[in-house]
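Researcher: Good morning. I'm working through a list of sequences from a screen, and I'd like to move beyond sequence-only analysis. For each chain I'm collecting a predicted structure so we can compare shapes side by side. This is the next one on the list. No need for commentary yet; just the structure.
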Amino acid sequence: MRTGLVERADDWIASEVPIALHYNGHPHVVMMATPADLDDFALGFSLSEAIIQSPTQLERVEVRMLLEGIEVSLRIPSAHAAAVAARQRNLTGRSSCGLCGSQELADVVRHPPRVGDGVVIPAQTLHHSLAALDRAQPLNLQTGATHAAAWVDANGELALVREDVGRHNALDKLIGAMASAGIDTQRGFLIVTSRASFEMVQKAATVGIALVAAISAPTALAIHLAETTGVTLIGFARTDGFVVYTHPHRVVGATG
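Model: Good morning. Structure tokens for this chain:
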């Protein structure tokens, strides 16, 4: 119903299904996610959660469609699988929560090492990439229900975009796609169409991304983690302005 008029119409709806990740035959996590780009998701989650340190350590991925959802079986080196089991993190992750079921504080507040130098960009580069991102989200344009994570190269051009109903999942899919393509995380920056929660900064820092721009606000813990890991964190990113919270030296004009 719009402007007082009632009409029937078909609509596009985003899919959200349970996706279970199993490492070396053992269940680890169930995430509510959009069932697309699952190979990217499996690799990106494994890297951003520091389960593996390089794409070559993900030896095999098998996807099984089940009545209840989707099971993704991953094979990793036995030493890494033992470390996963030691975390005791059998958890259910909702699309809006990356921590549900975590059993130890150390699992939550994991501090990645400091990132490298990263890129230095003019403000116009961020404005340009944000305008391009509006046109690069086909699933959200159809449904209005998904987040996106985008990688912008050193020239300010969108290189990769991944979408999902969950912001964490979109970022993991992007990280996986970048790793598969051999993209250097020091030669570009990340845009996410969501708030900058600390998990998003944590995942980005874990894989060495030095500049993160979010459409919405950051949390206090996200700012703290960005400060300590050397990440430039931008919030309220719009085509006409933004706020730099940490390490402004990577944005030309932000330190004036």
